[in-house]
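ugh ok fine here u go
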Amino acid sequence: MEKNGIETNKNKIFLSHATPEDNEFTRWLGAKLTLTGYDVWYDLQRLKGGDITWEKIERAIREEAIRLVAIISKISHGKDGVRKEWTLGSNLEKKRPGFVIPIRIDEFNFDDVTILFSGKNILDFNRDWFGGLTQLIESLEDSSIPRVSEPDAAQASLWWKASLRAPIELKLQEERIESSWIPILSLPSAMETATKPPAADPIPVTEKNRSIPWFELGTHVVSFAPRKMLIELFKDQISLEDGGAVSTEHLLTGNVVFDRKVTPNEAHDRILYLIRQAWDLAMEQAKLRRTELANRKTVWFIPKGLMPNDFFWFFDEKKKKRRRQLVGHSDKFKVNWHYGVSVKPILGKLRRMELQAHVLFSEDSGTLVDSEARMHRLRRGFCKNWWNPRWRDFQRALLAYLSQGNDAIRLDVGGGRYIELGAAPFVFNSPVALTDTSIQADEEEIIVDQEVDDLTDINDEEELDESEVSSEEES
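structure:
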């Protein structure tokens, strides 16, 4: 039975992947698609690393699946079982156009992808899982793949529960959720400008003029700093004249004209650019170290020796003073681990900075580990049992450090003016809670992933555990 070219008796998204090597990604993708409202084919035994019969798989692909997502990786591409699924999917596609959607999740060479997917657009999750997910959902929407009426959170939980050593259930009890969003409390009220001659070239960024946030817009140099300061700052490079000032909020309306009218979207992007510059300058002044990820995201992380014994103080939700290490060392692995964050400013109804946590590793010399594969293995080994309470403490400790114990983090934009951020994240109330007591009890047992080649010594992980225990609360 078909409706608009879609077989209405088939509604499942079949995820074809290598087991157990690609289970972590598959669990993530399965949960995300389920929460988006799609019915994803699920087999608990397979996600646990076990085998299921080819008969069962073939029936699911032939009789239940409306799409087959072929998860291409260095491992899956060479697995006979996975290739059988892809071959079956490609055969079925002759009667079901668009049935197979190939996606890539690692650095497997596009030129080496099986001829089965010749001519197909391969969605790339390698650099950005969320970016890949967005493309996949757009593809499903373009094909009018039906969704269920309401996303099934309980079904989605089956995906990740398969990976846990202890069960976690939802319970009807309000829970306080501390987010990773911090509020943008205020922006400077005015944006000031200085003008340059119409035929002048763009002004190069120098060590001196990067001391405050600014940008060029036509013949205008725009900043939150006083225009007299702008003229003085650039006098060695170019002669600027007073260009006046505009209200920051008015600029966002799209009704301001410089050399031309500035649209709301452009004004929005320009102000975000200033905020990011101000954040980077503040992190420099706070003596954090900077690195850039492969996706060009900037991460600021805690270096060794920034605080005595690398301990950072903060107050928890009960106003109890505690401390945490945000950087540590492993003698046996000969690496330092560093907590860090990247940020994304948002100027919507809820003006905020969205923080994303990262853990990086450096050699004893202080140089960051340059092998992405080794960095990934170290991260898996060290962070495998770092649960939400630990990440919340890391974030609190960093925010307390950046705010110097005050209620706000001030980003200097020049001339005694500041962008102010809240030093405490947004808190939301959830009508349901997770029964994660058992996870809390297991938190002290940090077990290294023994499949990792260079992280096979449990004793070294216990050493890390001891340093974590020593960083626990102190009254």
